[in-house]
Design brief:
The protein is of the alpha+beta class. It has helices spanning 67-79, 91-113; strands at residues 3-14, 26-36, 40-53, 86-89. The chain contains two helices and four strands. A hairpin with a 3-residue loop joins strand 2 (26-36) and strand 3. Keywords: Membrane, Transmembrane, Transmembrane helix.
Length: 118
């Protein structure tokens, strides 16, 4: 089982009015999903976003966006450059691979030297 984590790519305050409380401070945040397992760490290309009001702490969904919020969102979306998708192997993976290679090497050595005959 792998664990998923959202890594913050870009976080910015925007000076637009909240549709709920009409306070003019919103926070837009862009996240990139990363998966962590026992053998690999994978960075995905999936980017998500979130807009919250700093006063009433409500999440503002795209249905409630005004034109000003949408323009600001599009601007900051261009600034949020995601990390490259990658797969990194953990040290546990490398240890298991070395052990398996050693076992195969020992087995080949035993059968070529005819120490044990079958």
């Amino acid at each position: 089982m792998s664990k998923e984590k959202l890594v913050v790519l870009k976080e910015a305050n925007i000076k637009n009015n909240c549709p709920e409380c009409f306070h003019n401070e919103l926070m837009v945040t862009f996240y990139q999903k990363q998966k962590f397992g026992k053998f690999i760490h994978k960075t995905t290309s999936e980017v998500s976003n979130d807009i919250k009001c700093l006063r009433c702490h409500c999440t503002i969904y795209p249905v409630n966006w005004t034109d000003d919020i949408e323009r600001s969102f599009n601007y900051y979306q261009k600034l949020a450059i995601p990390h490259k998708t990658s797969v990194k192997f953990t040290s546990l993976f490398y240890i298991i691979m070395l052990v398996l290679i050693a076992i195969v090497g020992i087995a080949v050595y035993i059968f070529t030297q005819k120490i044990i005959e079958f």
